[in-house]
Amino acid sequence: MTDVDMPDIDGFKFLQLVRYVDKDLPVILLSTSGDTKVVMKGISNGACDYLLKPVRVEQLKLIWQHVFRRRTKDSKTSSLTPAGLLLCLSRPSFNQKKTQAKR
């Protein structure tokens, strides 16, 4: 889960980086913007959902249950966990790929 508007990187760029590491890792985008073009940009780039802030706790619970069930069902296709993603993002080889992708 990530915000679309962050100080160092926007959520769409982060989504691209996550897709580079694991195309099946679910990403939920959060934003205060409900602009249809912005929402569609997130979904078309691979976000599994797009939530408008403020987000209700019950809404988060339902979405995470859905994501968890889907991920558990599809676990045969990808073994990378969210903790594994953090490890990948901290590896020097990932940072080199990220730098090359900017070029």
Automatic annotation (TrEMBL):
Gene3D superfamilies: 3.40.50.2300
Cited InterPro entries: ARR-like, CheY-like_superfamily, Sig_transdc_resp-reg_receiver
Organism, as annotated: Rubus argutus (Southern blackberry)
Chain ranges of the Response regulatory domain: 1-68
Keywords, alphabetical: Phosphoprotein, Transcription, Transcription regulation, Two-component regulatory system
Keyword Nucleotide-binding found: no
Protein name: Response regulatory domain-containing protein
4-aspartylphosphate: residues carrying this PTM: 3
Pfam families per record: Response_reg
One GO process term, biological-process aspect: phosphorelay signal transduction system
